[in-house]
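Risk mitigation, structural track. In case the binding assays with cobalt (II) ion fail to produce interpretable data, a predicted complex structure has been prepared as a fallback.
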Amino acid sequence: MTERKSAPPDPSRRRLIRGALALGGAAAIPATARAAGDPAITELQPWMQYLGDGVDARPYGMPSEHEVDVVRRDVPWLTADPVSSVNFTPLHKLDGIITPNGLCFERHHGGVAEVDPAVHRLMINGLVDKPLVFTMEDIKRFPRVNRLYFLECAANSGMEWRGAQLNGCQFTHGMVHCVMYTGVPLRFLLEEAGLKPGAAWIMPEGADASAMTRSIPMEKALDDCLVAFAMNGEALRPEQGYPLRVVVPGWEGNMWVKWLRRIEVGDQPWHHREETSKYTDLMASGKARRFTWEMDIKSVITNPSPQAPITHGKGHTVLTGLAWSGRGTVDRVDVSLDGGRNWQSARIDGPSLPMALHRFYYEFDWDGAPLLLQSRAIDSAGHVQPTKKALRTARGENSIYHNNGIQTWHVLKTGEVENVEVS
Ligand code: MTE
Ligand code: CO
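Fallback model:
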């Protein structure tokens, strides 16, 4: 699944310049010298010879045509039908910590519901003083907040439980995205309805054909859950639950019900399909763990990776990746170039927000020898990302969900990268 590579620069035309950036001692950054006669400099390019499109040629702006391969992708053999399926965020093509709306992975159990917001309603019923029905306009009259959170499907990396399988971080780790949500704290809506004594759980329900439901404990619902209508400043995309979804910070993506139409309040969990036959972890004992809501500390190197090989040859190389924890912020990310024997601290850059993606970088001089790249994250609650071996020792081999083991990428002499495991 290696993608089209750009031609490596001619080494005879390269020279080292002194790096203007003082990044942790990185002294020299290689630059490709543009020798006299380089047509990229001497010749007028087409875009310099003609006027471009005026304003409004693209009323809704789209990426450059040169970025056409920056798209969500699916793995066709993974599911029987695209309607109950998943596609993956192209993590290897992104930087920073915000996922662009059009690139957020999609996970639907009954396809994308195309909801008309004018006739969309949110009902709150069950153990409440006053059952309520809100229009979208009603919801937007409550005080709202802005919060950046990652959403990770509990099945992210699930295909890797029994060994290295998929060749690219898009496929091994791409069931995660991180956007800025605008929404109303769920607490405000529940308080408006008034909780009856014994109200201990809520059950959000989706308006899609799958009518997704999950039980959420009241403590979480009143703490930091949102009913969100916007992502990254604009209305939710249909794929992400337009016009309304639940945001359950740090907890498994399945609970973030999209196309939210109803919230039932009860005194116990409902034990529906998505918390019994699915989203449970079958342990070696033959018993299944249930209600494993938090997404554990995890990280992955996004570049280099199988879809993002090293194309510039030896020398200064920027390694980057993502880390996240459902239990707080990421305090530290260590990087190993030799399969976990030696570790160096990576540099986390950008905001470090609880239950949001963190971006890390590690700049190094590649000598052209094969590498075994790993990253290991540590969160503010003190949890250290485990090796896959440690994870299997604790959990057995029957799991699908909650695989947060350390990923290894094998960089070959050619700069190509493979998904491997080291013991
Ligand atoms: N909500 C509804 N109504 N229907 C669904 O199929 N899928 C769930 C959850 N909420 C789903 C849903 C699952 S398993 C995940 S991982 C997330 O939505 C995915 O959210 P996304 O499609 O915005 O990435
Ligand atoms: Co999911």
